[in-house]
Known about the structure:
CATH class of the largest domain in chain B: Alpha Beta
CATH superfamily of the largest domain in chain B: HUPs
Strand order of the largest sheet of chain A: 11-10-9-12-8-1-6-7-13
Helix content of chain A: 25-40%
Strand content of chain A: 25-35%
CATH architecture of the largest domain in chain B: 3-Layer(aba) Sandwich
Distance between the termini of chain A: 66 Å
Structural class of chain B: alpha/beta
Radius of gyration of chain A: 22 Å
Oligomer: heterodimer
Order of helices and strands of chain A: EEEEEHEHEHEHEEEEHEEEH
Amino acid sequence: xxxxxxxxxxxxxxxxxxxxxxxxxxxxxxxxxxxxxxxxxxxxxxxxxxxxxxxxxxxxxxxxxxxxxxxxxxxxxxxxxxxxxxxxxxxxxxxxxxxxxxxxxxxxxxxxxxxxxxxxxxxxxxxxxxxxxxxxxxxxxxxxxxxxxxxxxxxxxxxxxxxxxxxxxxxxxxxxxxxxxxxxxxxxxxxxxxxxxxxxxxxxxxxxxxxxxxxxxxxxxxxxxxxxxxxxxxxxxxxxxxxxxxxxxxxxxxxxxxxxxxxxxxxx
Amino acid sequence: xxxxxxxxxxxxxxxxxxxxxxxxxxxxxxxxxxxxxxxxxxxxxxxxxxxxxxxxxxxxxxxxxxxxxxxxxxxxxxxxxxxxxxxxxxxxxxxxxxxxxxxxxxxxxxxxxxxxxxxxxxxxxxxxxxxxxxxxxxxxxxxxxxxxxxxxxxxxxxxxxxxxxxxxxxxxxxxxxxxxxxxxxxxxxxxxxxxxxxxxxxxxxxxxxxxxxxxxxxxxxxxxxxxxxxxxxxxxxxxxxxxxxxxxxxxxxxxxxxxxxxxxxxxxxxxxxxxxxxxxxxxxxxxxxxxxxxxxxxxxxxxxxxxxxxxxxxxxxxxxxxxxxxxxx
Lengths: 268, 329
């Protein structure tokens, strides 16, 4: 941590609203136009943590995302919430990336930024749900990481003390630079004020292509070319047939009790 | 048999996590199809005695890293061991439980080995071409993706309690190889111990009684907890109640909480959002109590009670007490 405070990088992803997105049952394809895009909810907690740390010890926040141009709206929102700089990795050569190819691109972008102290991201994204990109980025950058961080207790010049919620809660002391993936319990993201939203509108979002990262990673390791996993098929799971017996009226509880007794759940 | 299917045996307090046995069962099945051996690796302190258990559940060979310096989970030290072992032994397939620990550790190992990793699989099989198909739910379980890996080892994390538990067989023979711990433990991460234990273990519960938005106040959770206890179960909740701060996240059932598979799941005042269904739809018997007959939860229930939970649940509690012979206060 230099004289100018903590240099924080926050990784964010734009995702479809998972509660509303529809699927074509025939093809198993996701109809992305059926739901509005939003910032991955977990990442907003990472950004909030970054803003709180900056308020506490000073520093700067750079948000990085990878995706199509429409992801700019998530980055602009991040600027309104307190980020100082926003970078979008956007290029058809990034498209179709699995987690390792995504991580290579993000790690290359972080290297290109120069020095950093702390990288924050959500514990997972609601669309991919792998939780792999954070730890993979940390491995590629050869820095320690802690996953499922539910509390940042202390941060000093060269280390951070955090609680990791892995069922049981573990306390870890970690040397900086480090990467933390955060849970929703860490904080409550604040909504940006109107004046910050307006100010963010005038800020520039930097667009980086695969070529812009070529000094830091071989671009053949990005996107679908750099991916090691292939989705060969997508199927809509058969909804398990349930009996669907419905009880109504005054003796519903009695009927339910009978079911529980027959199932062996209630024994004299 | 030259190659192997490697299974990471996870431990807490030198006890093996049961997901490791489930993985050994699956590994056995795949290994037999592909003409491979089953290997396992266990890391920790005081874990040497447990190596034989891994053989009883299906391992042909167990690599043991048993040292005081490995007592607490250190992602960098454990990663280094697994990467080195994978480079030495060249497994075809490498399976890790999709527990919080596994999901933190596996991506680092995969990135270091520059290989593909499929997260949170619910099924694995060998197809007619001899390729491993990894099945994982995506988009809160609305779709299932079938995934192949083009690099080696093929790595996957596998969800707890989706694979059947294999039979323990004390007659099984296998080889135990004691390995040296790393000369130096990466000190960039230091574990300072456990600050709080999980209060409830939903994943292992046989009966779960859950409450949702239909509850009027935090106090009413006590009523559901009473029902849960009478049925020998534990209390669960849907996400909104955790967001409200009524209860801790270890009670949360759903996509962003715990995936559960009890013998009996009773949803009280839970409408059945995709996020909640993703966490409990594999339960053996599902009961829903809800005042709204159009609540989606009824489409996923074996038995539904359309009614006010504030009438149904107290009535049920007193009737169960009667059956059990519990005297009323």
